[in-house]
Amino acid sequence: MRLIQFKQVDVFTRVPFAGNPVAVVLDGGGLTTAQMQGVAAWTNLSETTFVLPPSSAAADYLLRIFTPRMELPFAGHPTIGSAHAVLEAGVVKANAGRLRQECGAGILDLQVEGDTIWLDSPAATETSLSDPDFKVLEAALGAKAQGTPRIINVGPRWLVAELAGSDAVAALVPDMQVMTELSNRLSIGGVTVYGAAADGRSALHVRSFAPAHGIPEDPVCGSGNIGVAAYLMMSGQGARFGNRYTARQGMQLGRDGQVSIRFENGKIFLGGSAVTCVEGSLRAPAG
After folding, report:
1. Can you tell me the mean pLDDT for 89-102?
2. In terms of CATH, what superfamily is 125-265?
């Protein structure tokens, strides 16, 4: 039975057992889509990735990304964690501090700056939320949203809403059944909320809920944070927290993570550090 290299990497942290874990299978060649989905269901993490040879000479590697229930075209923390894993394992080498990752969202540019990996986020689009769905959202959250929530598509589709502040974000106890029904009806991955922080460590606090994907709460969500940044930019608030800011997420799950965002020439860049916590091998699934 073939053994395949495996790492479990915590992302958006420099400290093991914080941030958000991603399982990275470093040799996904020969696995079927069904086998990959089976491994992702077994790890039961928010995402599991599989590294494959690229289909384009313009990319260094191909990454396939799975939640426990489905494949995603793109996700932030798996991209950063997988880049950390392939560099650490010597699968690829950065060229002048850069990597190019192929995924369902296309070919993405990644920059390596010390122990921080930055990615050039996919272009975002937005969809307005109807008044009835706005009311359902507030019922699901059990809290009032500020401004106008929007569906932001960055590969994954997040319904993004601002709350009154970080205390309101921390106090949320969402109705997961209502949120699942809303997510399925709107064909979104879930709901990401944020509120301005006053902790002296970050500009805002974020929480992301994706119960329709089998993830009641994602500890630290890269695409959710990109969605927040896109929401700010699209609603004319791009300068509210400056051209660079730090967001905290995961405190309610004991996984305090820090996400870096920067705006540059109309683009959104997501940055974070990562640390490997588990490495070894998996037996390739049969069938």
Report:
1. 95
2. Diaminopimelate Epimerase; Chain A, domain 1 (3.10.310.10)
